[in-house]
Write a structure and sequence with these properties.
CATH architecture: 3-Layer(aba) Sandwich
Radius of gyration: 14 Å
Strand order of the largest sheet: 1-2-3-4
Number of domains: 1
Number of helices: 4
CATH topology: Aminopeptidase
Shape: globular
CATH superfamily: Gcn5-related N-acetyltransferase (GNAT)
Helix content: 25-40%
Order of helices and strands: EHHEEEHEHEEE
Distance between the termini: 37 Å
């Protein structure tokens, strides 16, 4: 099945209903992340990304001012369709455009291969965040 995909940088205040719904479904409901950890108070200072498939919001991510990619979530029924890769590519392009020399993230161990496929390398041991195993990963941009 082919979807019409649109990825936009959105304003947290204007789109927080859709952004929060995706993150609540993935992180709080599915992965049992405590709400107080998910809603860390940083969303207004981050660049927010929203991916819509056939005009339905299905994925989100954010980029912090320090260059950390986080809160990347794709609704369960839309995984395995390339949306995560497209969303990640958009976040990386925006980070480059904003002048970042690299980006970093804390990847859940279960998706490290996904990020490695996109050029990220792990630089930490496994650590627990919100009860889930993670590793820190980074992608350094080549200035060619």
């Amino acid at each position: 099945m082919s979807y019409e995909v649109e990825i936009c940088i959105v304003d947290w205040q204007q789109c927080k209903h859709a952004l929060k719904a995706i993150r609540k479904s993935v992180f709080i409901d599915e992965q049992h992340v405590p709400e107080e950890l998910e809603w860390d108070g940083r969303d207004t200072e981050c660049t927010q990304f929203l991916l819509a498939a056939d005009s339905v919001p299905v994925a989100t991510a954010r980029l912090t001012p320090e260059g950390q990619i986080g809160r990347m979530a794709v609704l369960n029924n839309f995984r395995g369709k390339g949306f995560g890769s497209r969303l990640l590519a958009s976040v990386i392009e925006q980070a480059k455009h904003a002048g970042h020399k690299q980006v970093f993230l804390h990847a859940q161990v279960s998706v490290i291969k996904f990020y490695q496929h996109h050029g990220f390398t792990a630089y930490s041991d496994v650590f627990i965040d919100a009860g889930i195993e993670h590793r820190s990963m980074k992608l350094v941009f080549n200035n060619h």
